[in-house]
Design a protein that fits this description.
21% strand, transcription, single chain, 13 strands, two-stranded antiparallel sheet, rod-shaped, 321 residues, LysR family transcriptional regulator, alpha/beta
Amino acid sequence: MSGTEGGGEDRGGRSAGDGSGRTPAGSLAHRVPDLGALELLLAVARLGSLGGAARELGISQPAASSRVRSMERQLGVALVDRSPRGSRLTDAGGLVTDWARPIVAAAEAFDAGAQALRDRRDSRLRVAASMTIAEYLLPGWLLALRLQRPDTAVSLLAGNSATVAERLLGDEADLGFVEGLSVPTGLGSTVVARDRLIVVTAPGHPWTRRRHPLAARELAATPLILREEGSGTRQVLDAALGGLARPLIELSSTTAVKAAAVGGAGPAVLSELALGEELAVRRLVRVPVADVSLARDLRAVWPTGHRPTGPARQLLSLTRG
């Protein structure tokens, strides 16, 4: 006998067997055929043909033959007799088939349960988004998602960036979008769009008659119509200018800030995404600013270590499109 048969030792000096055909104890996965092999054996028993079993499972006949041989080596017994008339299970193969049926049935039940969990997850999507993204970007993304997932019910929770973080960390949302200067603690993120803040006023404001751009220090010293503290717009502006004067008016939505500016209450700083129509018809006028960058990243966010899955993952992919 060779050195690894009938109770010999492997190169490390470990026993390779006890002469009875039994293999040493180890991981169950190494001692029990996988589900694909057991499914194949059941198909051979039912159809009486290895080729027919291969076709039913969508694999080639050589692959099926190789899988049977591998299973026979693993178990140490012959399972299938092959002949020109077809394939017949040996007595050992018949026993293994009987044992395989409840295993495969249990796996099918497991798969059905897992699919039910996925279906329940995929039946709803909770999105939390800061105001600018919720108003000007998400509608298009959600419409595209609905075309792909018409059965997924979507709920949208709009608020400032701080509120979005609270919703995600409190398991009240599956995916969030923020527009602040940095990623809130405890969240992972990816950039989905870029934006700029711009200074606007009603047409009659003195700033619209300036011959030179507004200095950053003058903007910082001027009371402005602003979003509330905690909003991404406010954070970015404050950081870019190194501080702000006391707000002229403080409002909780982009739409409200625009309405106040259009009404002549004073200058405002808003997302370029939100101002297309107002600038086009000159309800508001853009005021250039020198020596300061008001660009910002818009991000998708989720709890650290829990990347989006299901419809949340699909929505994230649509933002990148």
